[in-house]
Write a structure and sequence with these properties.
This protein is α+β, with helices and mostly antiparallel strands. It is built from 23 helices and 24 strands. Strand 11 and strand 12 form a beta hairpin. Helix 4 packs across helix 7 and helix 8 crosses helix 17.
Length: 756
């Protein structure tokens, strides 16, 4: 168990450091030197979360098989292709002396914290393994792990679109992948645009439209994203600007974030208090507030990865045509050796082109050109956010930070707000079609925008900013972001409309928006269902009548007890299955993870158009009305399967939490210790309260800089990764219920003194 009280000696400390923990185990670290605080942060991360840190570095480097054996080989092969351990060493070489000093101090703290435990972390005893010491480059690997978390899905969507393109004629492809929809909520406009959808193709789809009962899942993998918004000082009770941020990621135990508060003098001698969420493995506060500035992130869903087809250009396997020319180049051959627990190491041959490593998909070869491979992908500049004094300085820091490119929203003590991108932004010569690049020219980016070229918005006249992984802008600046993987926009438009419903906000009203589970996105399908159930449709069909009653009486929210939402959601899914189930089956013959939803994150807008035009009626159905009634009857059959009643179809019974430690997959007998008791969750995709069984808000933060004492912070799970710790699930219930728990750590319960 971690050391909570007393004193310890810290190698390389310049002065005393004090660690005060509150009743949730959240530490306040106080010292006179920022590098000393990095040491203490590493010590705490290792004592509470070392196994999590180990998984992050091993995952990024492709070294999990060394710990788990052959079962992890496939993942290691995928990750090792990118050679991030080699790249992490280059990042450290390029770091400034001050940044390097912080990383080295943090590394000493991690290893001292690990060695100070009376026993190795319990996971290693279960795995019969010994934890390997932390190295400075491991912190860079943890940062690289977030590139996989936030950007690598772009590869899957490009492949899905390529498979879709091969299956559809031009007019069908344009119809299925619209660039803009009526759901869009760009932050440079106070209302959604009026949008005409592409014309409906004259010919019916060339895949089967089927009424067969689908076995497809209710949801594809939710988009890795987040919500963030801010209002300017004139719209708050503090007169300081107010910020909200909830980052949507996979939910597990322990949670990805680790709360902390840092107190230290900055370069000018002024005392700083920086509070927020840290990432175990890294000494920085990722999102939070420093008393002058509060900042938050959402995934930008831009264009950061190209697949370059080598099939038409490749001769003798590793030769490929240089861009724009007739000469051929030869890919570099390299070997990566993967250690495997209990077995001989496995050699992975890698071919590297001028654009990046080669990946084989089916019978095709592609070069992966990804921002994560470039030298500016990772740096330590985000640490400087702790000392930002205003929106302008925070935006400048963000635009030079090496992180997976994010929407950055900033609020400051003087009432100003701002938005820009943080992280590298490729310079694209033209908007991408979202497909693999082929042909002799291979137009992919070769350089990046300068910080001054980034799109930015300061203090809009209406005093509000919002981001939710949607298309962020309505003008040419959106082309600088690019990308075909933006969220539908229903979530963003609901947040925007919530922000315009009032003129003044406080922390509790922001929390209400974060917890907004009104299912506005599904109103269209609710009306379609109830309109179809007219008197003639109900005559002699008591189950249809009961379904209509339940849907009509529904309060419009995706709360855990919502029967109507569950039934309408099932109806929406049944329409998708009829229209696109056959297409998905064909696409998965090309690539096992391909589907229409993966190719188009905005499929709902296309489905609405099909329904408005009464289109694509399966051949075995006589007309549109019969089609809808067939889908409704399928909903009834699913809901009443096995003797269940329609009124049993509560949303929480489907949307039940499955938050657990990763070892539970192989050690299910430890469920009592390594999992949160399951609970029916409100919320869903396409609304502010994003919650799925294993996906949702990995933190919720509401804070006005300078007024952190009235801020709010939620986190699933607790501070500790040890199931016997009192901090293992401390604070989790507040996250579940939405109780307004404090942003700042509470009164000191434990105190640990670190001495040089």
């Amino acid at each position: 168990m971690p050391i909570l009280d007393g004193s310890v000696q810290g190698k390389g400390l310049s002065a005393k450091v004090t660690i005060d923990r509150d009743a949730l185990g959240v530490p306040t670290i106080s010292g006179s030197d920022r590098a000393d605080l990095a040491y203490a942060t590493g010590f705490l991360h290792a004592q509470d979360r070392f196994f999590q840190m180990d998984l992050l570095r091993r995952s990024a480097a492709g070294e999990l098989a060394e710990l788990f054996g052959p079962a992890a080989l496939d993942l290691d092969r995928r990750q090792r292709l990118h050679q991030f351990r080699m790249r992490s060493l280059a990042v450290l070489t390029a770091a400034s002396p001050d940044e390097r000093r912080l990383i080295e101090s943090y590394t000493r703290g991690v290893n001292d914290g690990l060695n100070a435990l009376s026993a190795r972390p319990f996971e290693y005893m279960l795995l019969r393994a010994t934890p390997a010491p932390w190295r400075p480059e491991d912190s860079v690997l943890v940062a690289y792990s977030m590139y996989f978390e936030l950007q690598y899905d772009e590869l899957e969507s490009v492949l899905a679109r390529a498979a879709l393109r091969d299956h559809t004629p031009d007019d069908m492809f344009r119809f299925l992948l619209p660039d803009v929809t009526h759901w869009d909520a760009p932050l440079d406009r106070a209302a959604s645009p009026m949008v005409l959808m592409p014309a409906l193709p004259a010919a019916k789809p060339n895949w089967s439209l089927s009424l067969a009962r689908s076995e497809s899942q209710l949801d594809e993998k939710p988009i890795a994203g987040s919500n963030s918004w801010a209002v300017a000082g004139p719209h708050t009770r503090h007169r300081a600007a107010l910020l909200a941020n909830d980052m949507h990621l996979g939910l597990r135990l322990p949670n990805i974030w680790y709360r902390l508060s840092l107190i230290y003098p900055d370069a000018s001698g002024k005392m700083r208090r920086v509070t927020g969420a840290s990432l175990p493995g890294v000494p920085a506060v990722i999102v939070g507030s420093n008393g002058r500035v509060a900042w938050g992130f959402t995934n930008s869903s831009g264009h950061y990865l190209d697949l370059i087809s080598l099939d038409d250009n490749t001769v003798n396997g590793l030769r490929y045509r240089e861009p724009g020319g007739s000469r051929f180049e030869t890919a570099a051959r390299q070997i990566e050796s993967i250690k495997v627990k209990g077995e001989a190491q496995v050699d992975l041959p890698i071919a590297v082109t001028r654009w990046g490593p080669v990946i084989a998909i089916g019978n095709k070869n592609y070069a992966i050109h990804w921002t994560a491979h470039d030298p500016n992908a990772i740096n330590l500049h985000l640490l400087r956010m702790e000392d930002a004094d205003n929106v302008a300085s925070a935006i400048k820091i963000g635009r030079t930070s090496g992180i997976p490119t994010q929407n950055l929203i900033v609020a400051d003590l003087d009432g100003h707000i701002g938005w820009s991108l943080a992280g590298p932004l490729p310079r694209h010569s033209a908007p991408s079609d979202g497909l693999p690049i082929s042909g002799p020219d291979n137009h992919t980016w070769s350089e990046y925008l300068t910080p001054d070229e980034y799109p930015v918005r300061y203090d809009p006249s209406y005093g509000r900013l919002w981001t939710a992984n949607n298309r962020q802008l309505s003008d040419k600046d959106q082309d600088k972001i690019g990308g075909k993987d933006a969220d539908l926009g229903a979530r963003a438009s609901q947040i925007r409309d919530d922000l315009f419903m009032k003129d003044s906000f406080d922390e509790s009203s922001f929390l209400s928006i974060q917890r907004d589970d009104r299912a506005l996105w599904i109103d269209f399908w609710r009306r379609l269902l109830t309109d179809a159930l007219d008197d003639a449709a109900l005559d002699g069909h008591p189950q249809r009548a009961k379904l209509k009653q339940l849907v009509t009486e529904w309060n419009g929210r995706a709360d855990a007890d919502a029967i109507g939402y569950s039934l309408v959601r099932s109806f929406y899914q049944s329409m998708y299955d009829a229209w696109f189930g056959g297409l998905d089956a064909e696409l998965r013959q090309v690539h096992p993870r391909a589907s229409y939803r993966v190719a188009n994150r905005r499929a709902e807008a296309v489905m609405e158009t099909l329904a408005e035009r009464h289109a694509w009626i399966p051949s075995e159905i006589s007309d549109w009305r019969a089609f809808l009634l067939n889908r409704i009857d399928l909903v009834i059959a699913k809901a009443t399967h096995g003797g269940a009643q329609l009124q049993d179809a509560r949303w929480g019974s489907t949307n039940t939490s499955r938050i657990a430690h990763p070892l539970l997959r192989s050690l299910p007998w430890l469920r009592t210790w390594l999992a949160v008791p399951p609970v029916g969750l409100p919320g869903d995709v396409n609304m502010p309260l994003v919650q799925a069984p294993e996906f949702g808000a990995s933190e919720r933060m509401v804070v006005a800089p300078g007024h952190e004492d009235t801020g709010i912070f939620h986190m699933p799970g607790g501070q500790s990764g040890h199931p016997l710790s009192p901090f293992f699930l401390a604070g989790h219930e507040a996250w579940v219920r939405g109780d307004p728990s404090p942003f700042l750590p509470g009164p000191t319960i434990h105190q640990l003194i670190m001495l040089p």
